[in-house]
Amino acid sequence: MAKHTLSTLEAFLIFLLVMMTAVTVALLSLLFITSGTIENHKDSGVPVTQSPPTTPGSTATQGSTLTHGSTATQGPPVTTTPEPPLFQNFSGYHIGVGRADCTGQVADISLMGYSKTGQNARGILTRLYSRAFIMAEPDGSNRVAFVSIDIGMVSQRLRLEVLNRLQSKYGSLYRQDNVILSGTHTHSGPGGYFQYTVFVIASEGFSNRTFEYMVTGIVKSIEMAHKNMKPGKIFINKGNVEGVQINRSPSSYLWNPPSERARYSSNTDKEMIILKMVDLNGVDLGLISRGLLFSYSWFAIHPVSMNNTNHLVNSDNMGYASYLFEQEKNKGYLPGQGPYVAAFASSNLGDVSPNILGPHCVNTGDSCDNANSSCPIGGSSMCIATGPGHDMFSSTQIIGGIIYQRAKELYASASQELTGPLAAAHQWVNMSNVTVWLNSTHTAQTCKPALGYSFAAGTIDGFGSLNFTQGTTVGDPFWDTLRDQLLGKPSEEIKRCHKPKPILLHTGELTKPHPWHPDIVDVQMITVGSLAIIAIPGEFTTMSGRRLREAVQAEFATYGMQNMTAVISGLCNVYTHYITTFEEYQAQRYEAASTIYGPHTLSAYIQLFRALAKAIATDTVANLSRGPEPPYFKQLIASLIPNIVDRAPLGRNFGDVLQPAKPTYRVGEVAEVIFVGANPKNSAENQTHQTFLTVEKYEATSATWRIVHNDASWETRFYWHKGLLGHSNATIQWHIPGTAQPGIYRMRYFGHHRKQDFLKPAVILPFESTSSAFEVVTS
């Protein structure tokens, strides 16, 4: 392909940007690299090797090269919570559900997903929640927990800390093998909760404030589910969802064998699976929903209806589906409250977009659905896919609404009961050194992590900020030289291993201030009767997911467990970017360039998950090697955004109204009030208030104000406008829905300001304010 020639100005600006980043990393490395930063397993570099399959469909369990290791995190002494007595004389499972807030800070932090410089949080559209489901056998002998979290992905540090705290409270009841943490993959949640350098840089530092908020919320949701366990039954249903997806790399999909593609009616997975949970009296407990393909696959969709111009924290289309379902079931409750819990979890969404109008050149309107996702004028930065709505908010509602409506239908008709034992299997694996058996005589190897050129190009859902193009299979001398000077040259070994990927960043060979990518990865599977949930540590493409499911089902069948439904749960436990098929890898679009362990990554995962399936089917899970435990870094690069004292204008107080509400609004209009504000990130430390806003209606009969909306409501928006020297404003909007009752309303603002007196530590103090009353009329 033709190479772009950079102008002198472009080259200088790009060089300046890269130099600033490199200098920052180098300085921070000096601060942290000498401070004794790692607790990890002494065998973390041990290669993973498996014996070749001895019979078709079978896989030998891992050999003795995997050994038990030391504890990754050392918490306080275990104070085990007594296990509540379980009623045993029934058919079904003990089922518990719980939901807890895990939003984190909503300002002065990067939103995690697009990796777009300057896309920092500046307010909130909806809260983020952790939704936990626990299932135990009637006698309590086995249990599993599945947690769906409204975040971009689960980081390794997040999982290790959650497990550590669960161990401190419950002992060995909840462990790395029977607890799955899965991110919904919203691109509008805060970052800052990672420990590997690539993600720390993308998050502009580590935020202990957000990390603690998330960990606390996840653990709380599990605690709630644990306390709420009661006898119940689980029903499963499945059906197609139409009109919400496109494949964003269709040219890559076409690299897969024609005979394989001919078996499927679409280049995306369309089928949804619903797990309906009810108590023994038939009362709803909750659901887990995933999309599933044509036969036995999960619903897969990228939560990127909210594009990379967004600055409001929210849970995107899948979160909106949860919002609608929970509001439907929890009548009379505010969002985030009520007993019913509905989780819409991620699956093999790697190449699946909700922007169904497809990619077009924004400057000409022409289609750019080509192998490079590039426009004749403007290149890849002009090629953008759009959703069905008039803006990203309405697109989110349309896509999420369709998903919810189909889930509601499937839920109502669910009648097939899940029965049978519960099981769980888990291993830690060094994914940078897995020997993959291609057949009985030939092997291949996974690679140390590396990112290719097309990684920097981004996708049609969010293009990269520099002039890179998808489908790049040849390096560029300018970028190669710049990388070599700043980070060192990639080894010949890593370049050879990743071919045909031209390496942009050899992250597996970069270790300062910490390793840039994980080597040790979780592979995990739980079974609930005839349902197997495969916890994948990344984003599988459509065909990758199909191959993995089929392989796992075949392995179960080989050892006597027929008719298993294998479902993929995405973004689990540790994030490792994407996993394409070997054929898709050759095209080197974004997903392939982001397949960090090389062209045989999928084959390695298939081999590893088949081993877990065999262990469960043959009741030999206890014989599985634990594997080399991952590191837990003690010191991380702190957020580059400093904490400063909040200040109100002279003669004003925090919460004073700067722009009042109008006296009257009509249904369909937007009520807006502007207040003297303070940094919302303070509220992630001092949680005196559980919301930034309320909309309240005056009830004349009782002479009281009733809360009708909070900041978890889709109808409200909280914007924070950062000024200079600690000054800021807060804007609260209420997009008055057609269902609003006529009457008198007001809006309230709840915040926290940082105060620091001379020679004294900073304190965070709450405040609140109320707008003037206004009337809502229907016409």
From TrEMBL:
Residues 93-607 form the Neutral/alkaline non-lysosomal ceramidase N-terminal domain. Pfam families: Ceramidase_alk, Ceramidse_alk_C. Residues 609-776 form the Neutral/alkaline non-lysosomal ceramidase C-terminal domain. It catalyses: an N-acylsphing-4-enine + H2O = sphing-4-enine + a fatty acid. Keywords: Hydrolase, Lipid metabolism, Membrane, Sphingolipid metabolism, Transmembrane, Transmembrane helix. The keyword Hydrolase applies. Belongs to the neutral ceramidase family. The chain crosses the membrane at residues 12-33. Residues 42-83 are annotated as: Disordered. PANTHER family: CERAMIDASE, NEUTRAL CERAMIDASE. This is Neutral ceramidase. Its EC number is 3.5.1.23. Residues 47-81 have a biased composition (Polar residues). It comes from the Eukaryota.
